[in-house]
Amino acid sequence: MILTAILAIILAAAIAPTLNRVLPALSHWFLALVPLSAALWFATQVPGVTAGTPVLETTSWAPSLGVALSFRLDGLSLLFALLICGIGAFIVIYSGGYLRGHPREGRFHLFILAFMAAMLGLVTADDLISLFVFWELTSITSFMLIGFNHEDARSRRSAIQALLVTGGGGMALLAGLVLMGSGSGEWTLSAIAASGADLRTHALYPAMLILLLLAAFTKSAQVPFHFWLPNAMDAPTPVSAYLHSATMVKAGVYLLARLNPTLGGTEAWFWALTIAGGVTALWGSAMALRSTDLKKILAYTTLMALGVLVLLIGIGSDGALKAFAGFLLAHSLYKGALFMGAGSVDHGSGTREVGELGGLWGKMPATGLFIAVAALSMAGLPPLLGFVAKELIYDDIFRNGHYLALAALLLANAAMVAAAATIFLKPFLGAPTKAAAHAHEGGAALLAGPGILASLSLLFGLWVGLPQGLLGAAADAVRGAPLGLELHLWHGFTPALGLSALTVALGLGIYTGQPAVKNALAKIQLATRIDHDRAWDCLLALLDRLARRVTGWLQDGMLHRYLAWIFTGILVLLGATLAVRGGLVWPGISLEIEDALGGSLALLILGGTVGAIRARSRMEAILSLAITGMSVALFFLLFGAPDVGITQLMVETLSAIILVLIMAKLPMLPPGSDRTRAAKLFHAILALGLGGVVSAIMLAVLDQPLALDLSHFFGDTSLLEAHGRNIVNVILVDFRGFDTLGEITVVASAGLGVFALLRARMGKRGRS
Amino acid sequence: MEVIMALTVGGMVAGAVYLFLSRQYLRVMFGVILLSNAINVAILTVGRLTTGNAPLIAQGAEVMDRAAANPLPQALILTAIVIGFGLLAFALVLGYRAYQEMGTLDTGAMRVAEPEDMP
């Protein structure tokens, strides 16, 4: 059923462009039905999964490689699947309204549904290899989505940047997963967890950890790989709302949570995650305060949220993991609503600049209400789900005494309060600005998504029992053992509540003192002078130059040098294999008297070869080659191959005739040698080396007994079944008739090629 | 005898490779001729050499005499010779046309696909 859901979404993606052409005004409503029904199906699985029985599904995929398409739905996967399909359905509806009349609306739905399918596969995959495949699919589809406005150079750059960063992480993921698989001997996540193989004590644990963290940190935009996420905001708003809040960037967080039971809990894990998460959270909140574009503010607060999630997994105490599950849901709901709301503001008023907005409340009351609710959740105020989640975080961190993390979280959360205030208060209250004059609501499609998500933020906050079961199951899955999560809106007067109050006060302080804060932040940034974007460009330019340099050196346009490279490669590979595998044998020469004739032919052949090399004139070379060719023909005749000998004679004669005919039209060989002394020496060594290798291979082959089964088969059946006494002929025209047909075709094509070449006079007159 | 021919083939391959590495198109062609001959000799040799006694079924017999030469390599070589000839003819004419267009047979000076000023 999981696979069916994924396939159904892919199918919906495939028909999206056509459907959009047929029903331009309604297609998004129909398309949204697919993820919506998937979400409903996932919802029906909640009771079972909460009760502790994950759903398992296995479809054989590449059995010879041991790769299966296996899916597993536990609490964590189910929470993600519901977010992906549920938010996804509203995103599809929303983008229908947002892109109304856009010429590529159908294509947009194609991309976003394909992305949805990939993401769904990623969070439900149990098999390591399918996990990787879906991971890469999300990178590729998000590249399409970020670069949707492909006429815009900035969009293209951002898309490529995101693809390179997350795709590079994907490579690390593959290597890390392979290490995990070979280290534990199991290739599914559930089997690795069940096998009890302790990967933490494995010799390759550091390598696994580094590779998998690289993957997760690039995907989830943790410092120092954070720079692509704000740039990715060049995408249309529905993409930002979906990929960069609820889903794709959380893939890295998902990976960390998924691996926590198998790889987590070590010192290295703790420090890597808490430092990256803490720094990302602080950096994100600082940048959020400095930004004035609604979408940029939201992008940076997303960075902050991702940092907090990573930090919580890193701390890894029971309470932290419970808080992780709660905050994951709360953030997805409010951030999705806020992004869509910001998109509606942009859509309705034509700008996202906070400074140009004001007094929208009168014009866009519904959007304003939804943004207000979501912003309250982001600020962590009761009675919203954001408050519940933040209490969980504070409670645990305070109790475990991670005071440094607590300070970071306090600052980041205060920044969230200020950001939430900026997002709601500035655009909607105060005197109407010019932009607000013609602002308007965007219709049902634009309101459904933010409305539902904001309502859920409120509903889950008031009725915490509703999401409690699923969140508990998710937290259990991250721990790998039952935790018993209980959610309460009201905890009583606890230290956490005090911290919340402090956060809000600090946040409002920052909001009112914003110009001063901005100045201070700008100074700090100037002092640190880290421009990641610039560094990224430099890195790419450097790679480019390196590639040019290497290519210029390896491929300088001189044919003989290319050939020298190829020959060197062959020589090294073959020679090394022979030497390592013990293929060098010397059977010894025992000359019989009847070998005298053969031996003299060999001498003639070698003489002709030397003559061809030393020839200074063309005629000399042709004669030398003829000596070799004719000796080869005689050699065939001598050793029981008359047919081959006759053919060789004919072809040798024809070749000589063609050579002479063509040479009449060609210039003489230039006098003197065409190589320098050094080149002569190098080429001679290369040539003798390759000749030696070929001889060695032949000697090694001759050292082995010859299997004559096939030859005897031909000898035995040639007359009785194919009615021919000349076995070579019968093989050619009967047993291997198709081979001969192929051969004739090749010769015919060569003939046609020659004909075409001689007829074609392309470009000659044009150029001269 | 096989050992002698193995060394001979080595010599032919060495000569062919040396000719291949030349800057003169014609010498490269000589290398092609030499190499295809060398490989044909190699195939016959590793199928073992039998003096005389072609792989024919004598009148009155129904199956091949087991002492006759191995027929399989011969069939392969026959195909190879003909295809080698096709290749040579095409390559020669290609060189001829290249000379007409570019006025040189020095492969180092044939730079239509990769001009000198390319990075």
Commentary on this structure:
The complex is a heterodimer of chains A (768) and B (119). Chain A is built from 33 helices and two strands. In chain A, 76% of the residues lie in helices and 2% in strands. Chain A has a domain at 265-512. Chain A has a two-stranded antiparallel ribbon. With 768 residues, chain A is mostly helical. Chain A has helices spanning 2-22, 27-44, 46-50, 75-98, 105-124, 128-146, 153-184, 189-195, 205-219, 228-231, 237-246, 248-263, 267-290, 294-315, 318-349, 365-379, 385-400, 403-428, 434-437, 444-462, 465-479, 495-512, 514-528, 532-554, 559-580, 595-614, 618-638, 642-663, 677-703, 709-722, 727-735, 737-759, 764-767; strands spanning 55-62, 67-73. In chain A, helix 9 (205-219) runs antiparallel to helix 12 and helix 25 packs parallel to helix 29. In chain A, strand 1 (55-62) and strand 2 form a beta hairpin. By secondary structure, chain B is mostly helical. Chain B has a single domain, classed as Helix Hairpins. Chain B has three helices and no strands. In chain B, helix 1 (2-20) packs antiparallel against helix 2 (25-46) and helix 2 (25-46) runs antiparallel to helix 3 (71-102). The radius of gyration of chain B is 20 Å and the shape is elongated. Classes of the chains: A mainly alpha (768), B mainly alpha (119). The interface between A and B is large, with 105 and 97 residues.
